[in-house]
Structure formats: structure tokens, C-alpha cells
């Protein structure tokens, strides 16, 4: 913010500029009316007054003023009354005229409101006849003050009685904060208007349109229900959810939108179909509705069954029991303890990511801190190689036996030789108090996501230009190496990244966009350093005893 002297100088220069503009405006034949209009505007004395008032207010604001008194309106009225009690001089008459003018009264009234911090609307008086219709002990009049936020309650029509019942109270909403509305209460009136013959959607619209104070006539639930204690359950969302696109939600305005990977605090699971939740990190304290795990699984099952239907119209149920529906994963905060083994760092990459090179460069810079799991192979050892350094050299029979006993996280064939990374090789690195880095195919994630390894998964993908015209024809994306990349190659890279994201993105903790090797290495180093000192969300099963 500029100093007062600078602001004053700017104001003076603005006056001078306007005066100069006014003197330079000479109407011509083509723009005569426009020039005349501008000249009149710049010449207005009111504009000059406004600029001076603005500058005075800016100077006053920088002083951080506090109210001298909280009842300026009352003081002005007392002074006016005192002036009228006797003969007045010309100055006193002018003062009385100022104090009784509507504009000054309004300014003083605003001053008192701000000074007293009295911003809430005034609730209307109770209706005189509200006791006539119902017994005084069976009816409850609730007055709430709300802004443009939803009331934070949903309603339903009772099938047997036709009564309008409060179905749920959203945690943190206006109704919940009041403590006066409860699940099971029967709603009779909203702002004096009966809801007995209105549809639930009409009532919801009436409630949402009510601003300021809102008066509800309620029949309390016959059976008092204990308030649900706020849950400390946290879930990682494994799918995207948009309430406005969900026709099944009881109230779209009360729905909580979220993206895959968001951490949700589920504050109520009292409803088997719709949970109440908040997004961790949101400043909004009001909970929203999300589909429960069971409800979303049923919906996903129905959709997948439709996808599996053949041309005969019959569902293929042979693999239904193997279907994994990605809904929520219960998580908790985790921070590595000083004497605890390091988390396993797993790198997966799409085409063109060159993650092995990235991994090797980071390890070479700090071999005492990071290491790779030494792989097994059946190929012959070369003269310069050492057992247990580059590879563990084993026979094909030994390799096959280990594979049969599930000792490898992944293995494959290259030039008729077998290669694989074993679980023991990872444990060997961790036993040396080093952080183990492995790069694997995404399919191996399922075997690695265990409480023992607590893997942190990094998805590396090269930055791929939208069009080949925007890049050098000989520069490959992601590494800076020189190799001719065709548009078909780029399309394969895009498709590879999309497929990995769709199938395995819910298991990824961090996406690393590789511009070039140097910057990618720097970002990877930063991630590894944070793993040792910061707190992360991990599945609850990883930290439970």
C-alpha cells in the first residue's frame, strides 16, 4: 500500500491530468458529441469532490480507527433536543439543521451498527394466535437466522400419515447450529404458510428462498433421538461425484461434490443411503450429503451388470464376484517415526517417462540415503559384474521356484532371460536404513500396498505438447534427449498416460510431470525429503496394530 504522501501526490497528479485532458479536448466533426460529454464529465465539480473524499477516507483508513462511542445517534438526538430548548444563534440553527437531516441520521445509524457489531436481523414477534390451532405443549415455534446458505435439513413425506418429517440434519448447517430442529420432527408451517398439502420439493424451495429470519412451526418427535456424535472417520474418495448430476440425491443443494483423491471426514453414517461429510481443508463447516459406500456399490454393480450384458440380454455373471468397485478407502494420518523403516517409494510411468534413468540419477547423487532393490536374473554374469551389486545371478530352476512361491513383486522375460524384483531385496535395502526406490509396472501395485511397505506411489509422465507444431521436431518430451518423435508416438504416450490414470490413478499419491530430467530429479528429491518429516494420509489398515 502506498504511503499517504505518495497517495496525496497521486491525487494531485490525477487532478492535473484531468485538467490537462479537459483543456486538450477539442471536439471534431466526427466525435463532437463524445468529446463534449467527456469534457463535461471531467469538468464536473462533483468529480473533484469525490476524489478528495476518497483520498480523505484512504488516509483515515490507514489510521485503523476505532469507535469513540457506540451510540452516536442517541448523542445527536440529545444535542438536537438541547438546542431546541432555548433561543439559538445562527451557528446553532445550522448545527440543528445538520443533526436532523436524514443523511446524517443514516450515517450515524450505520456507525452505531458497525460499532456495536449488531449485524444479525431482528426476529419478528411471535404470532398471537399460534397457540389456537395446537396444544401449547405439543407445538414448537423455531426461529432461525440464515443467509444464502441452505437451511441444512432435508424432509420426507411419511407414507402412512402424510406428515412432512425432518429426515436428516446436516452437520454444521443453520438447523444444526440452532440445536432446535431434530430428525423426526414434523414440519407444519414455514413463515406462517402451511406445508400440509405441499410437495416436498415445493417445501424445499420455500425454505431455500427464505432469507434473514425464518419461522418454523414444528411438532417435536414423540421419541427423542440422541444426537449422533461427530465421527472421526476419514475416507479417501476413489471416484468423482457431482450432486447436480445425481437424480437419486434427496436434495441436490445439500450434496457435497468431490473429486477422486479428496479426503472426506464422514461426520454421520446414521443413514444407510446418504452419509454426511465434509471435505478436509474446506473452510465451509457445513456438512453435505454423499452416497454411502453400500449405496454407491449397489449403483456401480447395476451399471457394471448392464455393461456386461450380451446381445441376448442376459448378464454374464461368471466374473461378478471378482469385480472391485472403487468407492471409498478409510484413511488416517501417518508420520514416519525416527526409528521406523522408511516407506517404499514406487515409481510407475507412462510411455516416454524414462523412470529408470530418473531413479538412477537421484540414487547416484546420494547413495548413502537411497538405494534400489537389486533384481534377480538368470542371464550369465559378465566379467565386470559382482554378485549382489548389479544383479542376483540365479539358475532358472531357482528363479522358477521363487516365482512359484510368490517371492517376486514382478518378473518377466527379456532376450530369453528371466528378470525379477524380489520382496527380500526390498527388505534388504530397508534393513540398512535406506529409502528403497523401485520402478514397476502398475499391475504390481496390488502386491506392494501392504502395511509392511506403506508405499508412496509416484506416477511419472512426460509433458506432451498438444500439437507437434508447438515443439522441436527432434526433441523428445520429458527428457531433453534428441530423438525423432512422430505424432503417432505422441498419441501413444497420451493414451498410455490416460489408461494408467483410469485404471490405477486411485492408488497414486503424487503425479510428477516430467519437463526434463534435471527438473524432474529436483522434484523427486523434494518429495523424498518430505516423506521423512511430513504427515500423509494412508489406509487405516497400515497403522492399526
From TrEMBL:
Residues 10-64, 65-122 form the L27 domain. Keywords: SH3 domain. It holds the Pfam family L27. Residues 230-300 form the SH3 domain. SUPFAM superfamilies: L27 domain (SSF101288), P-loop containing nucleoside triphosphate hydrolases (SSF52540), PDZ domain-like (SSF50156), SH3-domain (SSF50044). InterPro entries: GK/Ca_channel_bsu, Guanylate_kin-like_dom, Guanylate_kinase_CS, L27_C, L27_dom, L27_dom_sf, MAGUK, P-loop_NTPase. Residues 342-529 form the Guanylate kinase-like domain. Residues 141-222 form the PDZ domain. It comes from the Eukaryota. Belongs to the MAGUK family. This is MAGUK p55 scaffold protein 3. It comes from Sinocyclocheilus grahami.
Amino acid at each position: 500500500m502506498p504511503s499517504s504522501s505518495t497517495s496525496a501526490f497521486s491525487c494531485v497528479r490525477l487532478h492535473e491530468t484531468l485538467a490537462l485532458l479537459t483543456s486538450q479536448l477539442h471536439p471534431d466533426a466526427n466525435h463532437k458529441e463524445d468529446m463534449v460529454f467527456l469534457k463535461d464529465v471531467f469538468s464536473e465539480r462533483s468529480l473533484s469532490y469525490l476524489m478528495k473524499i476518497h483520498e480523505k477516507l484512504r488516509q483515515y483508513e490507514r489510521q485503523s480507527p476505532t469507535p469513540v462511542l457506540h451510540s452516536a445517534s442517541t448523542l445527536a438526538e440529545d444535542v438536537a433536543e438541547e438546542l431546541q430548548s432555548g433561543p439559538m444563534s445562527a451557528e446553532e440553527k445550522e448545527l440543528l439543521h445538520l443533526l436532523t437531516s436524514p443523511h446524517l441520521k443514516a450515517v450515524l445509524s450505520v456507525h452505531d451498527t458497525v460499532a456495536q457489531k449488531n449485524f444479525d436481523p431482528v426476529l419478528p414477534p411471535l404470532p398471537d394466535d399460534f397457540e389456537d390451532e395446537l396444544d401449547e405443549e405439543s407445538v414448537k415455534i423455531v426461529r432461525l437466522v440464515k443467509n444464502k446458505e441452505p437451511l441444512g435439513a432435508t424432509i420426507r413425506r411419511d407414507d402412512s400419515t402424510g406428515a412432512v418429517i425432518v429426515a436428516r440434519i446436516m452437520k454444521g448447517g443453520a438447523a444444526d447450529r440452532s440445536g432446535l430442529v431434530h430428525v423426526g420432527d414434523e414440519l407444519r408451517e414455514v413463515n406462517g404458510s402451511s406445508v400440509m398439502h405441499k410437495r416436498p420439493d415445493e417445501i424445499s424451495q420455500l425454505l431455500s428462498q427464505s432469507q434473514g429470519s425464518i419461522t418454523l412451526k414444528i411438532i417435536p418427535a414423540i421419541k427423542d433421538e440422541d444426537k449422533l456424535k461427530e465421527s472421526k472417520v476419514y475416507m479417501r474418495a476413489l471416484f468423482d461425484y457431482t450432486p447436480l448430476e445425481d437424480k437419486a440425491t434427496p436434495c441436490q443443494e445439500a450434496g457435497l461434490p468431490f473429486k477422486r483423491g479428496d479426503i472426506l471426514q464422514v461426520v454421520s453414517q446414521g443413514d444407510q443411503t446418504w452419509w454426511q461429510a465434509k471435505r478436509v481443508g474446506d473452510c465451509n463447516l457445513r456438512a453435505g450429503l454423499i452416497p454411502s459406500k453400500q449405496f454407491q456399490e449397489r449403483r456401480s454393480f447395476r451399471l457394471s451388470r448392464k455393461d456386461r450384458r450380451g446381445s441376448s440380454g442376459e448378464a454374464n455373471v461368471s466374473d461378478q464376484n471378482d469385480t472391485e468397485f472403487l468407492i471409498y478407502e478409510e484413511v488416517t494420518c501417518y508420520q514416519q517415526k525416527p526409528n521406523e523403516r522408511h516407506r517404499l517409494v514406487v515409481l510407475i510411468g507412462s510411455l516416454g517417462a524414462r523412470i529408470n534413468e530418473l531413479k538412477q540419477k537421484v540414487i547416484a547423487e546420494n547413495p548413502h540415503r537411497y538405494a534400489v532393490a537389486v533384481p534377480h536374473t538368470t542371464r550369465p554374469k559378465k566379467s565386470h559384474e559382482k554378485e549382489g551389486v548389479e544383479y542376483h545371478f540365479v539358475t532358472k530352476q531357482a528363479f522358477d521356484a521363487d516365482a512359484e512361491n510368490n517371492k517376486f513383486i514382478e518378473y518377466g522375460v527379456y532376450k530369453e532371460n528371466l528378470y525379477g524384483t524380489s520382496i527380500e531385496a526390498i527388505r534388504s535395502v530397508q534393513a540398512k536404513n535406506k529409502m528403497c526406490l523401485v520402478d514397476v509396472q502398475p499391475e504390481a501395485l496390488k502386491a506392494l500396498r501392504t502395511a509392511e511397505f506403506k508405499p508412496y506411489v509416484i506416477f511419472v509422465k512426460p509433458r506432451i505438447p498438444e500439437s507437434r507444431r508447438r515443439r522441436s521436431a527432434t526433441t523428445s518430451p520429458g527428457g531433453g534427449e534428441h530423438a525423432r518423435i512422430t505424432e503417432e508416438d505422441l498419441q501413444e504416450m497420451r493414451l498410455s498416460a490416460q489408461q494408467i490414470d483410469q485404471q490405477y490413478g486411485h492408488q497414486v499419491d503424487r503425479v510428477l510431470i516430467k519437463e526434463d530430467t534435471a527438473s524432474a530429479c529436483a522434484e523427486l528429491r523434494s518429495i523424498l525429503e518430505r516423506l521423512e518429516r511430513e504427515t500423509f494420509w494412508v489406509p487405516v489398515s497400515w497403522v492399526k496394530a
